[in-house]
Design goal:
The complex is a heterodimer of chains A (118) and B (109). Chain A has 118 residues and is mostly beta strands. Chain A contains no helices and eleven strands. Chain B is mainly β and 109 residues long. Chain B has no helices and nine strands. Classes of the chains: A mainly beta (118), B mainly beta (109).
């Protein structure tokens, strides 16, 4: 399973770090992703990291503000979010193909709500 | 990284078939056989229904099938059931990024 943590209320311009811990599968060989969903809106891909962190990718909407990283010794993937804006308000899901390579999302966490508001 | 184009809504009666389209470009849907589909019921976590255009994960009903032609992928649901009523999203690899469709609301009449 995947369990996200670190969500909450933050003021515009502030920072927040989300964590997602995996269990029940070999975390270190799986690509990991962050996907978000604003209230009442559709799904939006945010960022991806390869198993060994040799490939890191971010959506244009968050590039330069958000950073994905992982610690395989802790079975955890992170999303550092800086310079937050109101439009970043969303439920943030971590997801994985549960495979070394796989351009799909087979396992999802329950999500962490991030609210950016003054 | 423009969103893939899906119809906002489709509908069908129980027992009928419906098809949801997902149109991208030659840089995403048309370039790779890495299109997947997700079902999301209200206030629930998305569920993988189809991966790699047409492969059905274990446990997914064989009423769900996927295909692709050029820059357009499609999800077909046959033998519609009330429980199929949900939002559906396509998702495509696009080189060094990934992109979702805008989502389609399926109503079972």
């Amino acid at each position: 399973q995947l369990v996200e943590s670190g969500g909450g209320l933050v003021q515009p311009g502030g920072s927040l770090r989300l964590s997602c811990e995996g269990s029940g599968f070999t975390f270190s060989i799986c690509g990991m992703n962050w996907v978000r969903q604003a209230p009442g809106k559709g799904l939006e891909w945010v960022a991806s990291v390869t198993p060994t962190s040799d490939g890191i990718f971010h959506a244009d909407a968050v590039k330069g503000r958000f950073t994905i990283s992982r610690d395989n010794s802790k079975n955890t993937v992170y999303l550092q979010m800086n310079s937050l804006r109101a439009e970043d308000t969303a439920v943030y899901y971590c997801a994985t193909p549960v495979a070394p390579t796989g351009e799909y999302l087979a396992l999802w966490g329950r999500g962490a709500l991030v609210t950016v508001s003054s | 990284q423009s969103a893939l184009t899906q119809p906002r809504s489709v509908s069908g009666s129980p027992g009928q078939s419906v098809t949801i389209s997902c149109t991208g470009t030659s840089s995403d849907v048309g370039a790779y056989d890495h299109v997947s589909w997700y079902q999301q019921h209200p206030d629930r976590v998305p569920k993988l229904m189809i991966r790699d255009v047409s492969k059905r994960p274990s446990g997914v009903s064989d009423r769900f099938s996927g295909s692709k032609s050029g820059n357009t992928a499609s999800l077909t649901i046959s033998g519609l059931q009330a429980e199929d009523e949900a939002d559906y999203y396509c998702f495509s690899f696009a080189g060094n990024s990934w992109v979702f469709g805008g989502g389609t609301m399926l109503t079972v009449l």
